[in-house]
Amino acid sequence: MKVTGDWITAKPTQAVCRMLESAGFQALFVGGCVRNALLEAPVADIDIATDAPPETVVQLAEQAGFKPVPTGIEHGTVTIVSDGLPHEVTTFREDVETFGRHATVAFSTDVAEDARRRDFTMNALYARSDGTVIDPLGGLPDLKARRVRFIEDPGQRIREDYLRILRFFRFHAWYGDPQAGLDAEGLAAVAQHLDGLSGLSRERVGAEFVKLLSAPDPAPSVAAMRACGVLMAVLPGADDRALAPLVHLEGMAGAAPDGMRRLAALGGDALQERFRLSKAQARRATMLRSEATGLRAPAELGYRFGETDGQDILLLRAALLEQPWSDDDLEPLRKGATVSFPLKAADLMPAYEGPRLGERLRELEQRWIDSGFALTRDDMLAE
Predict the structure, then answer these.
(1) Do 164 and 59 share a structural domain?
(2) Final residue of a domain: which of 188, 207, 234?
(3) Are residues 21 and 132 in the same domain?
(4) Which of 261, 262, 306, 356 has its CA 20 to 30 A from that of 287?
(5) pLDDT of residue 179
(6) What are phi and psi of 69, to 5 degrees?
(7) Is 65:24 a contact under the CB 8 Å cutoff?
(8) What molecular function terms (GO) are annotated for this protein (predicted)?
(9) pLDDT reported for residue 98
(10) Are both 311 and 376 inside the same structural domain?
(11) Are 216 and 262 contained in the same domain?
(12) Strand order from edge to edge, sheet including 67-72
């Protein structure tokens, strides 16, 4: 079996492979690029595994005229920039000792040892520079069945890095078979190691969770997280009952998946504190949830929040209230997004000043909105 695609035949990438192979070393594509190519999904990052020591990789790159960047050289990773395209080149390695996300590694010349330290069998697939697939641990059948399965002992893989609990569900959401469910042995190991989640960086948990929610349909994976206790462990107070309806409504409205919209559907306590989101992300998620449970009409939502966020609010509202989607709301929403309030504070001075000025301006703005934006500046000033 071979992987194909423009990414593997690209001249900058083949040049990096030739650099290693001409010196007598292996150059094997590994991980996401191989997995996605076999699934006919887009390939973003190019990772290359080799039996060349990292210092040798740096030396060979410099001799070939490339720019080597020692991004993680203590763990065997060197980023080689070839014609502007980055390639992460990592020496085969095995874990000697692990401490959560931290590990003591030893470099190796055995691709099977390198494969055993990875997380899931579908991520332990390699390919030579000509595309020939190497499957040291039997991951191909799992990939073909879209089965996310831990390599060898699931509990050991989780103890090596507790973030793999969330990755287990994220990979199921993106690459798994939703009809088949999650691997039972993996789920059992997850349930036994929930305490390890408390030691993870909140930023990493938040980033992983948002990636999961950005999958085409994360609802089955999130339901499995709830069933085994992971959802409550990472986001207490979350309720996933509106998630599947939201995904369905998004399809009806032609809305692209959006992790923050779906996070707002889950709710939960102390979202910013739990996930350490950016201020903009936290504000948006909080606003979407608050407005979805409010009473503003579509026209006002468009005026106050714009067409994109306004539609997200309407989608969330329909999902939370178990209502159907209606395109009839889009016309007033779009109209509201294009209008501007015709009055300014200066228009009401000096008749109004101080707090009363702001209060009166808001009263008139609300009357203007309630009129369907029909009231003119003169109408309001006449009062």
Answers:
(1) no
(2) 234
(3) yes
(4) 356
(5) 87
(6) -120, 120
(7) no
(8) metal ion binding; nucleotide binding; nucleotidyltransferase activity; tRNA binding
(9) 56
(10) no
(11) no
(12) 67-72, 77-82, 85-91, 47-50, 28-30, 126-127, 133-134
Q: Which two tokens stand for residue 173?
A: 């959401």
Which residues, other chains included, contact 83 with Cβ-Cβ below 8 Å and sequence gap of 6+? 11, 12, 15
Closest CA to 259 of 281, 228, 234: 281
296: its two tokens = 């503003």
Supply the pLDDT for residue 383: 77
Non-local (6+) Cβ contacts of 315 within 8 A are: 246, 249, 250, 253, 255, 261, 325
* pLDDT at residue number 94: 82
Q: What is the pLDDT of residue 356?
A: 96
Instruction: Find the CATH number of the domain harbouring 197.
Output: 1.10.3090.10
- Tell me if the pTM is above 0.85: yes
Domain residues for 253? 239-339
Give me the residue label for tokens 């016309």.
331
Q: Which residues of the chain have pLDDT under 70?
A: 96-105
Number of domains forming the structure of the chain = 4
**Contact (CB, 8 A) for 35 and 46:** no
Helix axes 243-253 and 259-266, enclosed angle (nearest 10): 140
Check if the beta carbon of residue 39 is closer than 8 Å to that of residue 175.
yes
Same domain, 357 and 288: no
Give the Cα separation of 44 and 96 in Å (integer): 30
The model's pLDDT over 7-20, given as tens digits with 9 standing for 90+, comes to: 999 999 999 999 99
**Phi and psi for 90 in degrees, rounded to 5?**
-125, 135
Q: In this structure, which amino acid lies at residue 140?
A: L
